[in-house]
């Protein structure tokens, strides 16, 4: 085929699209500004275990994602929900125990962490096909090609696909020939999933909550954490709890957030709760390669899958992709896979 495609972003969207295009015979180059792959998938290793500070769960109705995990021979395991859950209604009330509803939709995790999905995809790329620390500064259309310019290199391609969040795209990359004004407007008002989230995890020597008849699941209207779940590993040899913090705590320091979490863990679980091995967190609003400073509040999934993203730009040479542009499950891992299929088919039709 000898048609070259440059993909911007090595999150799940970019890696999966590169995987599909390489199998189809395209020459690919994936450029990632960060020093790691994954985007909003962020599996952090600590104390001989892995904790998810980004995308974590998948469900049976995530058909494309489930199929991909099977294709890559990944092992899935059920989120442990055995035992009672905890609920904190107000600061004045004690934490209440309750039984979780029966027949809930089962959520699954990937053995080895969500990063295992990324590692299986990247195993198909050479060092020349996936470049880290390669921040794209400019995208410039030529007569029959398109140029992607970084601080150190210029790449010439037949087509360029951006898989970074649309809002980040229009704020961080220069286009000498301006993009469609409606596209820029919608992109600026397209919600980036996870950007408002603060995820945290605490690692323990034992799953002490099980001895208390608890599932590790908890909810709070008070905070600092609003949700918490068992996050022990697939082998049940390492143990953790993981959850979400109130987004208003983004302006606090990590030490201040940890102190608040420690106090709440004590309230929820007693002395065992505060005796953790490590505290880990990720404040996604402070991730410069995920989000951009904006004063505009966007409702979750606002403009995800918008029709404007389904068009090609710069005379058909530039495509805006990524999970937020997916008309199905926009913002989620399933959306990244669904959109990858769409773009791969589009490029095959264009060049075959």
UniProtKB/TrEMBL annotation:
- Please name one Pfam family that this protein belongs to: Amino_oxidase
- Which family does this protein fall into? Belongs to the flavin monoamine oxidase family.
Tell me where on the tree of life, at the top rank, the source sits: Bacteria
Query: One GO molecular-function annotation for this sequence?
Result: oxidoreductase activity
Record InterPro entries: Amino_oxidase, FAD/NAD-bd_sf, Flavin_MAO
Question: Which stretches make up the Amine oxidase domain?
Answer: 97-344
**PANTHER family to which the protein is assigned, alphabetical:** AMINE OXIDASE (PTHR43563:SF14)
Q: What is this protein called?
A: Amine oxidase, flavin-containing
């Amino acid at each position: 085929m000898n048609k070259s495609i440059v993909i911007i972003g090595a999150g799940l969207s970019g890696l999966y699209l590169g995987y599909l295009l390489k199998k189809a015979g395209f020459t690919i180059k994936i450029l990632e500004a960060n020093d790691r792959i994954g985007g909003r998938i962020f599996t952090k290793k600590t104390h001989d275990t892995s904790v998810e500070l980004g995308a974590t769960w998948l469900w049976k109705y995530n058909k494309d994602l489930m199929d991909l995990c099977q294709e890559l021979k990944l092992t899935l395991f059920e989120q442990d929900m055995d035992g009672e859950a905890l609920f904190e209604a107000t600061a004045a009330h004690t934490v209440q125990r309750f039984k979780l509803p029966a027949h809930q939709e089962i959520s699954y995790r990937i053995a080895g962490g969500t990063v295992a999905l990324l590692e299986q995809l990247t195993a198909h790329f050479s060092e020349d096909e996936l470049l880290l620390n390669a921040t794209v500064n400019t995208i410039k259309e030529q007569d029959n090609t398109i140029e992607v310019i970084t601080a150190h290199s210029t790449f010439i391609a037949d087509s360029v696909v951006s898989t970074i969040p649309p809002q980040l795209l229009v704020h961080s990359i220069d286009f000498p020939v301006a993009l469609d004004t409606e596209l820029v407007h919608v992109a600026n008002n397209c919600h980036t999933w996870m950007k408002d989230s603060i995820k945290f995890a605490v690692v323990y020597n034992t799953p002490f909550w099980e001895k208390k008849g608890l599932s590790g699941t908890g909810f709070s209207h008070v905070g600092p954490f609003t949700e918490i779940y068992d996050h022990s590993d697939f082998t049940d040899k390492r143990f953790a709890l993981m959850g979400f913090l109130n987004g208003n705590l983004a302006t606090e320091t990590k030490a201040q957030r940890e102190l608040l979490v420690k106090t709440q863990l004590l309230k929820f679980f007693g002395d065992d709760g505060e005796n953790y091995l490590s505290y880990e967190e990720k404040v996604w609003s402070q991730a410069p390669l995920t989000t951009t400073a904006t004063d505009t509040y966007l409702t979750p999934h606002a403009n995800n899958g918008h029709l404007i993203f389904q068009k090609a730009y710069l005379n058909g040479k530039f495509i805006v992709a990524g999970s937020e542009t997916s008309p199905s499950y926009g913002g989620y891992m399933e959306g990244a896979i669904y959109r990858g299929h769409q773009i791969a088919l589009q490029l095959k039709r264009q060049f075959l």
